[in-house]
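Protocol step 4 of 6: record predicted structures for both targets in the notebook before any analysis. Target 1:
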Amino acid sequence: MEFFGIKTGLVKVGSDLTNVIFKAVREGGIEFFKGDILIITSKLVATCENRVIHVLNIKPSEKANLLALKSSLPPEFVEIVIKALNDVSKVIRNSKVLIMGLTYKENVADTRETPIASIVEGLKEYKVTVFGYDPLLGNRDQFDITIVNDLKEVPIVDCIVIANAHEEFKHIALSSFKQMMNANPILVDVRNVFDRGIVMGEGIRYFTL
């Protein structure tokens, strides 16, 4: 098996993806044969489709800055979490959010210094109903939220937040996530566990930095 990189040059928001690929292949003198595979990064697709969040254009609210200070997370990310529901025209108040991964670090059953408590506090200030799932903690509730021991027990939610990259999470089918959410499903992937293009290909809105 051989791998070849294709240089596309600078790709701008709104560029025609098909033209970008054909031009790069032609100028690179690359020929495709039956059985060859073309891999396109999710970042290239997102840029062409204008599915890009410019961090410099995000103005964190006072509440987001306060929450970021407590959680050691960038205020821009906290603001994205807060705005994710609004982005798909969902009312934040009384929305249901599932946070997956409650420990301070992936694959470690330790909640000391975890930022989750501050994230939960921030969501509750917006009157969001928060559920939590962490296979390493069982039913231990240290965050004053509803803990589920099995994802099959999760009620239909509006948004899922992947707060830690536990190994178990990497093997969950995206279709399973979609079944746990109602219309206009949202996945906020703090640790970039999943590929944006694949997630959006499943009809799930994807947020991260």
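Target 2:
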Amino acid sequence: MVLPFVRDLFADVEKLPAFLRVASHLREGAGRIRVSGLTPTAKALLLVLLQKSAGRSFILIVPDNRAAEELVPVLRAFHELIGGNDPDSIVSLPTRDVLPFQNLSPHPEIQEERAVALWRIATGAVSILVSPVAATALRLRSSEYYADLARMVRRGETLDTEPLLRHLNTVGYASTDVVEMPGEYAIRGGILDVYSPEADRPLRIELFGDEVESIRKFDPATQRSSTAVDEALLLPLTETPISDDLLGAIHVRLSGKRIAGAEEVVEQAIVLASAGNLQVQERKEHGNGAEQADAELGVAYPADELEWLATILFNLAVDYYVGEKEERGAKWARKAVELAHILATSWDADDGGLLVSVFRGKMAELGWGIRSGYTP
């Protein structure tokens, strides 16, 4: 509860001549304006008041993720103090903690926070976005793409569970026997338990046939249902869903040939890369230069692209391992090692087998037997 005199104090700030000039400038969209002479706390208060007065979304650019983490709680507190209805409309879009092609996966918490933030932006649910400089410089997809990352389930509506479960798998959820942590789901007959990111409790969705009969929160410790709700918002855990379509698009980019199915994509990549390297080597042995052979063959998988695809597959394997799908992860890891092995023998590579060694070392740490089913 906010005391009346506190709200009156903030209302007095909105009557200051300087504030009125800035608010009018923003409402008219008259270009840039510079505001100075404020402490950090005063800046946060003025930003919230100006956003409320202007009636439009703001983007606040800060130096790094730490600055964003420190500022968002302050902005949300002021938002509540001035009578704002939805403090969650103030969100942070963190920058990734790894760079592309760094052979590392981003931290799961950062992936989750970015995915939820991008969904909120795409659906118009953001009043103030706090974003580090590096995050604002990244190229993004269309708003329709991010708006499709979440799913809404409502009581009384028809629900086809198979497409929903496929979607949950692509946006980072893991199937378990008992739901205890965010990002998990379990299905038992006509009951679907799911724990959405940012939710205070997991939800139990009970079906009668194809109709959603009830949605209830439940305690992850005791598994007992409690409060009934009318709808369940299932937010994503990643902004880049891993699907057969995505792997197919990667294959199109690399080879210009479209084929269906994730395994077919990888197998075709291995076949094309192996054949290309073999034919280049034969031409070199018969006196043709590698550059001439490359020009004649139009090599479909140059070294840098092979490294990229192998890294994507190995990161996918690790994600499966984290999601307790060890057998599937080991399968994709072996495919990644096979591509890395082809990379080591590619005529235009200076890898020298480094990527193979890195993958094999990681697989040994995770307890995956490399020689089981594949001998490099």
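Step 5 preliminary note on target 2. The chain has three domains: 4-145, 151-234, 244-366. The first helix runs from residue 4 to 13.
Proceed to step 6 after PI sign-off.
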